[in-house]
Inverse folding.
């Protein structure tokens, strides 16, 4: 039974290791005994399985989700001077990947559900626009039908930043299968998580897949032949083996997170907070469970005082970061994203959270907000 003052962590990777280690340790020992740490069968096995999961022809294992964005855009021909339309409320990696290529991020405001507003995209298209990068934030896929229609009309590429949305669906289609490339992170905090940095790219385009495979390994066609200059963005075999093992558990992880989200939704008083509803055509995987409230900072402090962990994803929109100064944006340019930045709070949603803990968190939230002006 959960004690009223027991700590409820925002994440619980220790519990995951306790659950996995009996099965995972022999797998890791096998990889280490083989002494083949880069490339080979473990990578190929993981790539095959994750491609099947995402319903695409190709999955390419990489060092990180950020590298998936960078290499995916390079393979699509995006280069210095091009423009890529994207929202400003993502993790910085989405914009940073664009800037790394010498391209320009062009921001578009978001909907109340935190995803890019398709109605604002078309007006930002110029002759330099080459791609749209929707970010499937929190495990909810962006409203892709109008985005895909706009991309088709203007012959633009779609780069899905799917870092937070493995297994999510939009009108029955899986995250990573809707655009020209899907870019995933397998960071330790993701629903499908490695024990270190890792990521992968998905695509149905044979040429893009081959290009990314070459780029991730110096552009080497074989041990002694460089067909184009690349980089090092290989996933190591240890991480591939861990991810392939955890891929088998992903469905139950998603179902537990969805159950936790539903308990929160049922218990938290909707007069005090806003939680975007899950529409009939969505299947959200809840990488994060985000509420919006006017008393965010005070509520977070109150929860912390009661040993409940929480997080803010993300308190400063990218266009207001010091690194974005040269882009010329200012406060007020994206009012919805800026408004949300002061209201959003991510609650614990991980698969090791029990119902009693969610009941306690919800009770604390209702107790606090019922006595504060909202």
């Amino acid at each position: 039974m959960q004690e009223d003052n027991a700590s409820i962590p925002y994440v619980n990777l220790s519990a995951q290791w306790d659950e996995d280690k009996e099965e995972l340790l022999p797998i890791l020992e096998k990889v280490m005994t083989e002494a083949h740490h880069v490339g080979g069968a473990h990578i190929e096995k993981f790539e095959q399985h994750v491609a099947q999961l995402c319903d695409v022809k190709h999955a390419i294992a990489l060092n990180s989700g950020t590298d998936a964005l960078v290499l995916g855009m390079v393979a699509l021909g995006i280069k210095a001077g091009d423009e890529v339309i994207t929202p400003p409320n993502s993790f910085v990696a989405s914009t940073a990947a664009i800037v790394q290529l010498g391209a320009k991020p062009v921001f578009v405001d978001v909907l109340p559900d935190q995803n890019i507003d398709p109605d604002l995209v078309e007006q930002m298209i110029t002759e330099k626009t080459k791609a749209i990068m929707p970010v499937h934030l929190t495990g909810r896929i962006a409203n892709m039908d109008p985005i895909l229609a706009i991309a088709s009309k203007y012959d633009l590429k779609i780069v899905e930043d799917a870092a937070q949305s493995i297994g999510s669906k939009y009108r029955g289609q899986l995250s990573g299968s809707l655009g020209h490339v899907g870019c995933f992170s397998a960071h330790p905090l993701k629903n499908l998580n490695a024990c270190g940095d890792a990521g992968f790219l998905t695509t149905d385009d044979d040429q893009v897949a081959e290009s990314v495979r070459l780029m991730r390994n110096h552009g080497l066609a074989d041990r002694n032949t460089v067909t184009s200059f690349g980089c090092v963005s290989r996933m190591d075999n240890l991480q591939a083996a861990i991810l392939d093992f955890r891929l088998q558990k992903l469905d139950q992880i998603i179902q537990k997170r969805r159950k936790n989200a539903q308990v929160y939704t049922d218990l938290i008083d909707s007069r005090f907070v806003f939680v975007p509803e899950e529409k009939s055509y969505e299947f959200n995987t809840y990488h994060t469970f985000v509420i919006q409230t006017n008393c965010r900072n005070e509520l977070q402090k109150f929860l912390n005082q009661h040993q409940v962990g929480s997080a803010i994803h993300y308190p400063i929109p990218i266009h207001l970061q010091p690194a974005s100064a040269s882009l010329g944006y200012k406060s007020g340019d994206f009012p919805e994203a800026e408004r949300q930045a002061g209201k959003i709070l991510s609650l614990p949603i991980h698969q090791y959270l029990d119902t009693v803990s969610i009941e306690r968190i919800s009770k604390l939230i209702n107790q606090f907000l019922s006595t504060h002006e909202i």
